[in-house]
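Technical annex, item 7. During the second reporting period the consortium partners agreed on a shared format for inverse folding records so that results from different sites could be compared directly. Each record opens with the tokenized structure and is followed by the designed sequence. A conforming record, contributed by the partner at site C, is shown below for reference.
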């Protein structure tokens, strides 16, 4: 036996897996998803067609997903019954063993074999019955009409159709021409119908197909006659007409039940529902029209009590709600509200009862059959008609949704209580529809501002129920509700205008969304129970990966809630024409920073107390919040020393430092948490540099020094001060926190970026700044530029030497051994630019390259300065026996000589040229006397000084 023919025996019948898969793959789920989604989208978009289209697309996707899930559940049920295709070949040689299936919270668990006495003779397995795939609604309707017309005696059935239409036309023509009294005409038509009934009933044994066709035509003719006599031609009193219709309805049902003829019942009801359409005209009073259809629907319900004839239910449902829809669109008046409301309520109750009776009378492969078309169709059509009726009433649509939700939920509980596990699928379907209506009532009643809150609360409730009942679908539904509520809240953040603190819609919505999200994240810490089915296992894996993101998402919602309240606007009143912010923009950023850092601190405290690791994660990245807070106030031209900003920064910094220490308490060196803590320490150093610079910028602003050199060296001073602090503090080493864990982070990793900034800033300041010391006078070496450049160079040298002296050496610091070359170059540039700055400030030389390099005095000073530098290098090299340093001084001296002959010798000014040659020559004599070349072998020539 192969997979295609592998079967499972359920209640005496064998079903193949392929047949069951096609049976459960009904395209009606997709179709109803499209219809329901289109209606909901239409209402959500305030009856706009775009919303209907988008809702239909979303409904199609949901229907496809539902169909796929149902198919998977059916496959799991088949597996539980033992119908695994891969094992069929092994089972063909073994006797069939009864299996029992235990259902826990709607999911199938592993079967438990029950030992039985093996018979001596193995009975042949029953042949597998292939369940055909069910086509769509339109295709089923066309197929049914074709089969009725072309199946059996086609000529007889076609003749009945023609006869029925002809009699209707005859009645109308005779009435218009006045040939016979109306009573006689109606009596003749009724006699024709009775004759068809008698003939058909007599021939029910000899010609069953022919007999059933005649009886159906006779029933339809009797309906036509009674309706015409009571409504079109008031010759028959309404009570008598209703009584006769009841008799005809009962008679048709009795004949159908007696002969077990679903086709006869269908023909009777099709004829009955077609009477008003065939006769045309106004159709008489509204109450009479609805009473007529109500009687027909009662007949449908009576048949549903005895037979699981689904076609009868669908015929009655389609005709009733279709005619009601056309009447509501074309002829409804407010005066008909009560009658229409009563008829709609009766119709909804009748066809929901018919759906329940269908499940009672029809046993499926894996439980009671559920007519999803009827259940969803009544909900969709009935609710749509009810919305049309109450559209002009306040909260009418919301109350309609609540009413339908209460009806479906009540029926679901009643079915579960009385039917037990056999009716579980029906009860869960009605429960899902009822919850959907209850959910829909919220936006219809409260509007978007409060809908998110209600949906979040409903979502956490659904998740809790699913957790308690070990069912994954309610939990997934709850997660989706919370997600939608969160998205709705995010869309509300930008428009928080309210005079109420905390009790305004935006804050309350955010609070009531964030708290359920925290609750769900808390519940997801440990694996939740499930039934063990394939879909349940997949969802369990999804939930396991969702635990940490759920908390982070909840924390984000909480932070957005606090930020929205801080950025709240007050409504316009007599004092201002437009909404005004509750706090100034600069204070908003500081308060938001404080709120977020305090929340992270509280979450970390809670996480340490309860062992909830993910709750400590926000406290590991508060340095980013501080950076963003400073950047936000800097863009608004605010400073941290403004009141009350300085107090907020003190509190925030204290909380951040406390979090740093708490995070280090359990960090394992080399772990991800340790690296994140190291990054926070390093980032804190960089942030301190910005904060110190901000304070200095405030001083520059208060002194109105933006056009002087004081403003240009502010950040360089800040970076130099922090670098010196790190060198003197971390360079010495310590056994106390934080250097016990992060000495390398402070001394090397944080400082290396500061060193690069100080180097670049020092070079830029030396080359560009002209030394304007206003309001103070310019003093060589004591002006802001020279002092800052010398301080920066000194801090770089001290830090570099402390790095090389570190014991043990820092990992990755070896490349800094050659940094003395860059430091020497920076020192050479700094000393030269000090002379040029002196020439500009004291000698009046213009501050540009052409003027400075073209001045004879400047060139003379450069030559003497270079010679002095060479002298200093060679003296130091001689005393320390460093041949490389001495050779560097000699190279600089060679450069001076070349400058003398190629630059200074061409100067037209004789005095400057004379001074240059005399001074340089004298200095070279001194060098040759006091600093000769050191001997080889004292130190390695490649060693840095």
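Designed sequence (site C submission):
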């Amino acid at each position: 036996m192969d997979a295609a023919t592998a079967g499972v025996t359920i209640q005496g019948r064998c079903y193949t897996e392929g047949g069951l898969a096609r049976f459960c793959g009904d395209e009606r789920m997709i179709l109803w998803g499209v219809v329901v989604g289109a209606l909901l989208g239409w209402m959500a978009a305030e009856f706009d067609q775009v919303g209907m289209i988008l809702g239909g697309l979303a409904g199609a996707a949901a229907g496809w997903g539902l169909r796929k899930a149902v198919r998977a559940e059916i496959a799991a049920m088949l597996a539980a019954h033992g119908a695994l295709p891969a094992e069929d070949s092994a089972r063909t040689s073994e006797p069939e063993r009864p299996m029992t299936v235990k259902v826990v919270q709607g999911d199938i668990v592993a079967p438990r074999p029950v030992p039985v006495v093996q018979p001596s003779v193995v009975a042949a397995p029953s042949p597998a019955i292939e369940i055909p795939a069910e086509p769509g609604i339109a295709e089923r309707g066309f197929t049914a009409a074709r089969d009725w017309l072309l199946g059996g005696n086609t000529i007889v059935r076609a003749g009945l159709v023609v006869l029925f239409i002809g009699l209707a036309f005859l009645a109308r023509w005779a009435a218009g021409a006045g040939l016979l009294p109306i009573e006689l005409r109606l009596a003749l038509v009724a006699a024709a119908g009775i004759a068809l009934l008698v003939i058909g009933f007599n021939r029910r044994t000899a010609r069953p197909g022919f007999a059933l066709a005649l009886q159906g035509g006779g029933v339809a003719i009797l309906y036509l006659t009674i309706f015409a006599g009571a409504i079109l031609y008031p010759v028959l009193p309404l009570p008598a007409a209703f009584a006769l219709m009841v008799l005809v309805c009962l008679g048709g049902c009795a004949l159908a039940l007696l002969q077990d003829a679903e086709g006869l019942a269908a023909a009777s009801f099709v004829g009955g529902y077609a009477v008003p359409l065939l006769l045309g005209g106004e159709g008489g009073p509204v109450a009479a029209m609805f009473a007529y259809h109500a009687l027909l629907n009662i007949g449908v319900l009576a048949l549903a009590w005895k037979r699981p004839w689904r076609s009868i239910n669908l015929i009655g449902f389609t005709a009733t709600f279709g005619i009601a829809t056309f009447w509501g669109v074309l002829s409804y008046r407010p005066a008909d509200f009560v009658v229409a409301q009563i008829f709609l309520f009766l119709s909804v109750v009748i066809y929901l009862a018919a759906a329940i009776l269908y499940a009672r009378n029809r046993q499926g492969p894996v439980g009671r059959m559920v007519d999803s078309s009827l259940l969803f169709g009544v909900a969709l059509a009935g609710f749509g008609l009810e919305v049309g009726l109450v559209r002009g009433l306040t909260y009418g649509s919301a109350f309609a949704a609540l009413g339908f939700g209460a009806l479906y939920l009540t029926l679901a509980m009643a079915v579960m209580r009385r039917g037990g596990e056999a009716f579980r699928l029906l009860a869960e379907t009605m429960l899902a529809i009822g919850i959907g209506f209850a959910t829909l009532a919220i936006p219809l009643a409260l509007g978007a501002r409060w809908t998110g809150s209600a949906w979040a609360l409903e979502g956490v409730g659904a998740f809790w129920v699913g957790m308690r009942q070990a069912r994954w679908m309610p939990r997934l539904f709850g997660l989706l509700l919370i997600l939608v509520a969160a998205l709705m809240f995010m869309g509300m953040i930008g428009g928080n205008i309210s005079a109420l603190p905390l009790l305004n819609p935006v804050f309350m919505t955010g609070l009531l969304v964030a708290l359920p999200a925290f609750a769900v994240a808390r519940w997801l810490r440990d694996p939740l129970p499930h039934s063990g089915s394939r879909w349940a296992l997949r969802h369990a894996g999804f939930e396991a990966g969702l635990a940490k993101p759920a908390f982070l998402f909840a924390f984000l919602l909480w932070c957005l809630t606090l930020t929205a309240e801080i950025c709240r606007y007050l409504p316009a009143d007599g004092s201002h024409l437009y909404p005004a912010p509750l706090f100034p923009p600069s204070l908003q950023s500081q308060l938001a920073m404080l709120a977020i850092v305090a929340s992270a601190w509280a979450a970390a405290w809670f996480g340490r107390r309860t062992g909830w690791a993910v709750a400590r994660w926000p406290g590991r990245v508060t340095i980013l919040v501080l950076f963003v807070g400073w950047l936000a106030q800097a863009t608004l031209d605010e400073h941290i020393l403004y009141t009350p900003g300085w107090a907020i920064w003190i509190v925030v910094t204290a909380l951040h430092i406390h979090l740093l220490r708490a995070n280090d308490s359990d960090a394992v060196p080399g772990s991800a948490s340790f690296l994140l803590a190291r990054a926070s320490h390093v980032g804190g150093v960089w942030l301190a540099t910005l904060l110190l610079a901000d304070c200095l910028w405030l001083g520059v602003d208060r002194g109105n020094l933006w056009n002087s050199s004081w403003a240009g060296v502010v950040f360089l001073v800040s970076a130099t001060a922090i670098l010196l602090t790190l060198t003197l503090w971390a360079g010495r080493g310590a056994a106390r926190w934080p250097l016990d864990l992060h000495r390398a982070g402070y001394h090397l990793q944080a400082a290396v970026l500061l060193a690069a900034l100080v180097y670049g800033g020092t070079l830029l300041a030396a080359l560009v700044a002209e030394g304007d010391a206003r309001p103070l006078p310019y003093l060589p070496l004591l002006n802001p530029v020279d002092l800052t450049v010398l301080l920066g160079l000194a801090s770089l040298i001290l830090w570099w030497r402390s790095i090389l002296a570190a014991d043990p050496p820092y990992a990755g610091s070896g490349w800094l051994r050659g940094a003395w070359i860059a430091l020497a170059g920076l020192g050479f540039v700094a000393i030269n630019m000090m002379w040029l700055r002196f020439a500009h400030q004291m000698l009046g030389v213009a501050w540009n390259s052409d003027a400075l390099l073209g001045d004879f005095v400047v060139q003379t000073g450069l030559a003497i300065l270079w010679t002095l530098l060479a002298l200093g290098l060679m003296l130091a090299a001689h005393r320390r026996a460093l041949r490389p340093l001495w050779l560097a001084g000699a190279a600089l001296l060679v450069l001076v000589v070349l400058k003398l002959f190629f630059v200074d010798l061409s100067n037209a000014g004789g005095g400057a040229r004379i001074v240059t040659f005399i001074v340089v020559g004298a200095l070279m004599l001194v060098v040759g006397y006091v600093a000769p070349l050191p001997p080889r072998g004292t130190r390695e020539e490649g060693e840095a000084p």
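The longest strand covers residues 7-10. The CA atoms of residues 521 and 551 lie 5 Å apart. All partners now use this format for quarterly exchanges.
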